[in-house]
Design brief:
Blueprint lengths: L1 H10 L9 H5 L28 H13 L6
Length: 72
Amino acid sequence: MHWQLIRLACASVATLCVIPMQDVLGLDSAHRMNEPSQSEGSWEWRFTWQQVQDGHARRLAELTRIYGRRRG
């Protein structure tokens, strides 16, 4: 399901498309970046390169190509 949402974001007419790493990795809500109701502990989430697989980069590159999101 998360890749369908990422595809929708890439297909948007918006100038920029920012995909949280938690979504790319398919992580659940336990890996949130912040909890608005908590005064401490926000913005501490980090990924490790062991979580990243070749397929993640291939899928992102394909969506970037399909939807013309490459700039420069």
